[in-house]
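ingest -> validate -> predict -> emit
validate: passed (alphabet ok, no gaps, 151 aa)
predict: started
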Amino acid sequence: MKQKNNIPKKEIKKKEKKKVNDDSKLVGFSTLNQVSGVPKPHSYKSHLQVSPTKVIKEPLDKCSICGQTILNISQAMCSPDSSFVHFDCVLDKIKSEHPVRENQTISYIGKGCFAKLEKNENGSWSIIERYTYESQENYEKMKSYVEEAKV
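emit:
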């Protein structure tokens, strides 16, 4: 092995390659975004007015089933006698009045209605019975009451 200034040949070749790479640096654009003309990111400030968020003023009524205060009216229902009740209280009441088997459950299906659901062998659910707890009229009253309670 011949040495130049006490440096092995392999190291001399590496230094020469580095020199070639250093000389061939690109000048100009450094990113694809600059080449394609994409503008630099900047913070966006809207000129539209934002209305303040509304908060529900809780009436803090008592549940006619359990007697406890309803802390969140948006999660309550209107009973047939037009009083407020906890959703969970209604669900527990319906479950106690209509017992279910192992492959069945009671679930809320919307607009004041509950249903007894049964799971078949394929794993899909079907409705066995429907239970209307909140009438359409009471449902609409409750919905409008919650909207009016927003401040």
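The chain has a mean pLDDT of 79.
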